[in-house]
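thread: overnight batch results

M.L. [08:02]
morning all. the overnight job finished for the chain we discussed friday. pasting input first so we're all looking at the same thing
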Amino acid sequence: MDVQVPTLGESITEGTLAQWLKKPGEAVAEDEPIAELETDKVSVEVPSPISGVLTEQLVKEGDTVAVGAAIARIDESGSAAAASAPAEAAAAATTNPAGAGENPQLRDSEHAPEPVSAMAETSSADEQITTLSPAVRRAVLEYHVDPTKIRGTGKDGRLTKDDVIAAAEAIKSGAAPAPAEAPQARAPSAPAPAAPAPQAKAPAVPGERREERVRMSRLRQTVARRLKEAQNTAAMLTTFNDVDMSAVMEARANYKDLFEKKHGIRLGFMSFFVKACALAARDVPAVNASLEGDEIIYRDFFDVSIAVSAPKGLVVPVVRNAQAMSFADIEKTIAEYGKKAKEGALTVEEMTGGTFTISNGGVFGSLLSTPIINPPQSAVLGMHRIEERPVVKNGQIVARPMMYLALSYDHRLIDGREAVTFLVRVKEAIEDPTRLLIDL
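M.L. [08:03]
and the structure it wrote out:
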């Protein structure tokens, strides 16, 4: 049976086969991932439609594949042992072609099966490494643990990210992690063959100049293309303002413990800005609108895209109907998206359909920036780091925690007066959070 590329989401017609999770000759269960695809927006796993044996890989890693294209074949009636026999035979022939130098008496002796047993054990260990999900593989690399020595608690004994983290913590504390179950008992007659030593990289010569060429990921190519299209298409302009964060910081300090105790999530700055932008967009609807041909599409809902840093680049999951959400709901949604982004588990649906974007460069230390619009949206708010600066309050020079705000917008749709008004409304709501409660 052919394994086909599944539907990847609206407007996505192809992807890149980033990695095979199963090798030819290996057994697969129904719905078990056999490959990982990278699309314009997310990485997705391709599940096996049936249980059987992977007999053939029809494409190579790095190849571009269209939705519906066949990428592998699975034999429902086959077995892993039968399918792997030719591969083992070929490996044996390569190691010792035509029985060269082989002692016939030794070949027929009772000790002959020993190397086969060792090979089976090594193959099983390799299989466990190969079939790890993307999130687990990233955790293994991050925590520097051996996945073959960890007992999996997932479905069918598969390793989970929590298993890896628990093992890393156990090693750090000096306790031994739960060992993985041995794939097969071995006869004690001979030690396992030593694994070939990895070839060490040549040490860098002092003063040597090196280059490395790395192919851009499909996600990075898409980000580059869309941002350049935004610059070429939209009449982009940026307006700035600064905001005194004293009131929000005081509110967080007073209520953070009660908030976390009641809602199970920390109170952050982002929920204040999401609510402030939703309130401001009600007064300046053009900021939440978009152009389609010669028509302007206005919306009575506020679906805000929150820029999140992921291992493979910046992603923008969407908090839908933010205008109707509570502070706790916004914080929980953002936290869930942040976790999914790190694990590479965001879906296409979770990253499409936003009407406005908020990008917080301040978490990386940015003082000021001019963010680029995410088409077909017409505006994006850039947040920046908070730092104490001298300001004049009631005729006195005082130090206040200040943040610069930047609103980039499409001047074809949004006038300068509207952009400035929107940013002033956000500033007013952040400096006096009571406005968020009484809709002012």
